[in-house]
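Milestone M4 deliverable, item 7.
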Amino acid sequence: MGSRNHYYLSIADLAHARGSDPALRWEGAGPGDFAAALQEALRSRALFERWLAQQPEPETVDPSLGVTDGQAQVQARVTDLHVEVDVLTALPMSLLRQRLNWLIGAAWQLHDVRPA
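Output delivered:
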């Protein structure tokens, strides 16, 4: 796994941020719930396994798509009517994007990436 990075994101309307697939999307109520769900999605294979089970030929899926970071940390807080999210992980942006899209669709925006 690569070096650890901080990914700084914002979510304009967390109350309505949902992924398109009901089996994968986040159904929480606030920033704390979202941070816990994203952290779990980065630390464990549970969300990936649910997605994998839906694939027509799961054995052909690249196993690197299910890589996790057991040390990932996520913090989220309300700031000026939106939610600011700080993700600390060694996972590449492509996997963070994958998990975010499953959970909340395109409702997020990346603002900055910095080495940890």
